[in-house]
Amino acid sequence: MDAEQQQPLKPGQAPPQLKGRLLSTMNEDGSRRWLKPWLSKGAFWKKRRVVAYALIATFTLVPHIKMPNGVPLLLLDVQRKEFNVLGGTFLPNDMILMALLIISIFLTIFMVTALFGRVWCGWACPQTVYMEFLYRPIERFFDGDPAKRRRGKKASPIRQVLKYIVFFLCSIFLAHTFLAYFVPPAELITWVTRSPFEHSTAFLVMFITTGLMLFDFCFFREQMCTIACPYGRFQAAMLDKQSLIIAYDEKRGEPRGKGKRRNKSDVSLNIITEEPGDCIDCHKCVTTCPTGIDIRDGLQMECIGCAQCIDACDDVMERINKPKGLIRYSSQAIMSGEAKRFVRPRMFVYPSVVAVLLAIFMVVLVGRTAAEANILPRQGSPYYDYGEGQITNQARIRVFNRSDQTVTYTFSLAGIEDASIMLDDPTLTLDAGQTQILGFSVLLPTIAFADSNRANLFINIVGSDGYEKTLRYPVLGPDLVNTEVNP
User: Fold this and answer.
1) What are the pLDDT digits (tens) for 297-321?
2) How far is CA 192 from the centre of its chain?
3) Which of 279, 303, 364, 441 would staple 256 via disulfide (CB 3.0–4.6 Å)?
4) 427-443, pLDDT tens digit by residue?
5) DSSP states of 83-147 as a string?
6) Using CA of residue 31, residue 32, residue 38, residue 42, what is the dihedral sign?
7) Is 382 helix (H, G, I), strand (E, B) or coil?
8) In 3-state terms, what secondary structure has residue 486?
9) pLDDT of 259 strictly over 80
10) H-helix or E-strand containing 386?
């Protein structure tokens, strides 16, 4: 905003119109600015391509990999409330462990950002990886390079249709890959091989997920990074002057010139033109940027650190016989002439906090019992009249065998006299890592509710491996206190 726009408004004066773009993906009139970035195949791009395809393979295979104990490497089964991470299984009762782990991961990301800037965004984020190394290559194959499109040479309608068919197939693949982190792969394969009418809800989930993938990578695109993702806005708090960023060397590049223009003088007019900098204002750093920014304007929220502008600028510098590195990975401190300083407070704070959280995580993890048992919410009627002065309550217990051996668990009751379990065999045998829900009825004497319609029953669980646990189960019965008994 210029000086005139900064002046306070007088009574009745209309606010001035802002000049220039407010967002890199929006034109001055407010319309969407569609970005078709040129591809700069430089050294950084080649390295990012290797990393990207390795990550795509990793993203695809991780849900299907199982640890030696048979537990998935990573599966967040929300429906069954089981979270498998690196061979360990976490239940809702283990949320403290999951919370500690997630907080540690986020703090580690903050530390990495403070050191290496937005290296995650430009090199490893699935949004960037799939957008720049799957969808855009497909688009360039069917539409041609940006130079042809800017000269008015558009792809034929058939190629456009084929492009979106391929986009749709890729989105289906990504949707299945994404859901494989939340649905067991065997169950996911069942969804795929059977008729949608047999699992309409699952099919609807898959349909919506595929639609979201299409919307993101075919329409929303870089706006996910510049508008929706909060990470770019957090970087102001996470970065400091020593953080690694992509920076334009203004001292070397300014003032900008055209071509190989050099210092010229006109003695007759007594005018000496200023020596131009190395930047020839070719705008290749802008046309190759996947978020549409001009890196020469300084550090910006939209910069994802992908290094495409570095590859483009290095290529130009090589062509005009100038040193590379006019745009490079550096830091604000180095660019302003300060010394590089690795040791700074946040480099001690972040690792220290992460170390403390991981230590607590390990203590809680090691202190976990060999099994986990908990009572699930009751279903159906609160109680049933069994006759002969007895009632029944329905009970469901979920047991998870964390040990590496087969264990048999025995159930018994305490707390109410003459209470019994209505099961032929009150035992449960589970293999290592197996989870099962045991449903049974509890037979209780009606006289147990003489003082209240609620009584405490204790269910004792004893495992053949030495595991023991007692669960308190509030049972319900008739309100004998307020019930009028006829002689």
Assistant:
1) 988 888 999 999 999 999 999 999 9
2) 25
3) 279
4) 899 987 788 888 889 99
5) EEETTEEE-GGGHHHHHHHHHHHHHHHHHHHHHHSSHHHHHT-HHHHHIIIIIHHHHHHHH--HH
6) positive
7) coil
8) coil
9) no
10) strand 384-387
Cα gap 169→161, rounded to integer Å: 13
Enter the tokens of residue 290: 């996947």
Q: How confident is the model at residue 262 (pLDDT cuts 50, 70, 90)?
A: very low
CA–CA gap between residue 444 and residue 424 (Å, rounded): 17
β-strand pairing of 371-375 with 390-401: antiparallel
| 182-191 own/partner pairs: CB under 8 Å, 24+ apart | 182/75, 182/76, 182/77, 182/78, 183/77, 183/79, 184/72, 184/75, 184/77, 185/63, 185/64
Spatial CA neighbour of 227 closest among 40, 33, 56, 28? 33
CA dihedral 320, 323, 329, 332 (to 10 degrees): -110
Mean pLDDT, the chain, rounded, equals 84
Task: Report the DSSP beta bridge partners of residue 393.
Answer: 442
Instruction: Find tokens 């970035």 and name the residue.
Output: 37
- What is the β-pairing status of strands 468-476 and 454-463? antiparallel
Does the pLDDT of residue 153 top 70, yes or no?
no
- In our burial notation (b when 16+ CB lie closer than 10 A, e otherwise), range 371-387 reads bbbeeeebeeeebeeee
Q: How far apart are CA 370 and CA 368, in angstroms?
A: 7
Q: Residue 296 in 3-state DSSP? A: helix
Place of tokens 């829900």: 437
| Nearest 10 degrees: Cα torsion 138, 142, 144, 146 | -60
What local confidence, expressed as pLDDT, does residue 190 receive? 84
User: Whole-model pTM?
Assistant: 0.73
